[in-house]
Amino acid sequence: MLYAQGLLTLLIPLSVCLIEPARKRQLMVLPFLVLGAALTLYMLWVLVMFPTAIYVKGHSVVYTNSTTSHLWMALLCVIATCGALFLSGYRYIIVLGAVNLAGVLLTIWLKQYAFTSVWCAYAAVNARYIRIKIRPILKVSCSAKYRLKEPTSRRSCQIVMPAPARR
């Protein structure tokens, strides 16, 4: 729950900001990163300071907290996470943003009362998209330049993202 309602709003915009090579794109994502950081601090404080009720309803786990269980809070979280994805220069990350937004809307429509648990299940399905579509695009290049000097040293690896699609 700390991840879904606390850290996710920071990690998604931060990830998008870090993978963007162009400074212009990083600056475009910055407001979403600031919003995500503010939401993360607030949500973590609320989750630690106020009680959260957890119960089962309609085959779903329901998390209720008097402070975080508001529609405006969910909307700000969606804006911070999906907004950052839509501003990426990588087409497949923009698609991920669209898939996430569709999932949020579907989750709210189907089971608004169990948003957090249903959203987590949806996120697991979304992880398959990342595994199938995004991971093969990453090229991992490793160099073993230290191998001869010290047999116990690790290889240095670097993840190289392909150039973003021009729009």
Compose a concise summary of this entry.
Helices cover 61% and strands 13% of the residues. The protein contains five helices and four strands, in the order H-H-E-E-H-H-H-E-E. It has helices spanning 2-19, 23-49, 71-86, 91-111, 115-134; strands at residues 52-57, 60-65, 139-143, 156-160.
Please explain how this structure is put together.
The protein has 167 residues and is α+β, with helices and mostly antiparallel strands. The protein has five helices and four strands, in the order ααββαααββ.
Distance between the termini: 37 Å
Determine the fraction of residues in helical runs and give it as a percent range: 55-70%
Give the strand order of the largest sheet, numbering strands 1, 2, ... along the chain.
1-2
Number of strands: 4
Poorly predicted runs: 140-156
Beta-strand percentage?
A: 5-15%
| Rg for CA atoms | 19 Å
Q: Return the string of H and E elements.
A: HHEEHHHEE
Please tell me what the overall shape is.
globular
Structural class: alpha+beta
Largest sheet: 2 strands, antiparallel
Q: Report mean pLDDT, rounded to a whole number.
A: 76
